[in-house]
Prior knowledge:
Number of strands: 10
Order of helices and strands: HHHEHEHEEHEHEHEHEEE
Number of helices: 9
Largest sheet: 6 strands, antiparallel
Oligomer: single chain
Amino acid sequence: xxxxxxxxxxxxxxxxxxxxxxxxxxxxxxxxxxxxxxxxxxxxxxxxxxxxxxxxxxxxxxxxxxxxxxxxxxxxxxxxxxxxxxxxxxxxxxxxxxxxxxxxxxxxxxxxxxxxxxxxxxxxxxxxxxxxxxxxxxxxxxxxxxxxxxxxxxxxxxxxxxxxxxxxxxxxxxxxxxxxxxxxxxxxxxxxxxxxxxxxxxxxxxxxxxxxxxxxxxxxxxxxxxxxxxxxxxxxx
Length: 237
């Protein structure tokens, strides 16, 4: 069994304890460990809008195009055989065997038993299937993934997570310390607008992965740490 397979099997079951792990970063001194595991260099993790049209000026790259760009440029492409979050947390809404995508030179070291090595076109098709099914694509460099996959250099590994709202590890982020929460940023120019049509139904509160929507009486209110993932101007009504 290769190093990648051993690392993956060892860490797989820890995903069911992700909420507790993020809570530990609130303890004195533990936030530094959380920041190290989530160290993102040179880019931050950020959500990519899906399932909504986004109006942008001519010549500006749409968010989905950002991911497509990295897939096109990458030298190696690997799709995990399973999603650790969904498979270990009993997701009932999405396929637990629809795995994350990994790009870059380090991806060549991923054990075939952990993830299948695919072509550039196959990686693009996987991204589009994720978008069409309503999964939320997250792009970044995450040293924790390199540890999970048993690869040595996380700076040569890029992660594209295809997350579901119920099981994604990012959904545990609100339990973490503020320093760790701030490692995930929203796309520049993306925001939520509450209109006068808001009827206080609370659907946005349930839908927000970052727990940044709340009701004030019969009106929705956006929290200061909003990392909105839906569109450039979402009307919550």
